[in-house]
# Entry
Amino acid sequence: MPCPEPTEPPALIIFDCDGVLVDSETIANAVMAEEITALGWQVTTDYCLKHFKGSHLDAIMAVIEEKIGRSLPENWLPNLRARSDIAFRKDLRPVPGIHALLDFLVESDLQHCVASQGPHEKMAVTLDVTGLKPRFEGRIFSAYEVERGKPHPDLFLHAAETMGHAPQRCVVIEDSPLGVQAATAASMRVLGYDPKGLDPRLAREGAQVFTDMRALPGLLGI
# Structure
């Protein structure tokens, strides 16, 4: 069930990274699909988006190994990351409206941070390429810092504690069902970004769904 809407503006906005700040999901999952298909398991970009979006890489790799019936080659993950970085540097863009939204949050003196399932090395590339890295310097959190990634609440609770705010005063912006589950488990209100309006799972997991970053200030009550 979704958390009740607060009666006052939030103290902290916690952004997911991929698909919320940077428009990386299609790029990353296209590379993922090619690398998995090369192993002998034929998958598409759409399949990866549906089944792997928001998942920790360790969990994805375990699924792949089960499907192909053998361990992944030692160079599989480094090669995936290298190819993804090349694709990001070539084609990655910020999510439409995110720079204007962040300007508004700064002007409103509303604290915000990033809490991503991905490693810091990946965010260093994606946030830098899109010009977002300086906006979050010192406020970037990764699931690799905590014991359990999404859908567990550990990452969001870690971010809130580090930033000095109670979970009930935080709002999470997510685009994946796993992320929504994690935010709900952390007793945080969660807004689900679904620009194409095609993922009913976000609402089912308890998110208030929106399709345009320009709508976010109104949803936050600021």
Q: What stands out?
A: The longest strand covers residues 111-116. The CA atoms of residues 146 and 217 lie 30 Å apart. The mean pLDDT is 95.
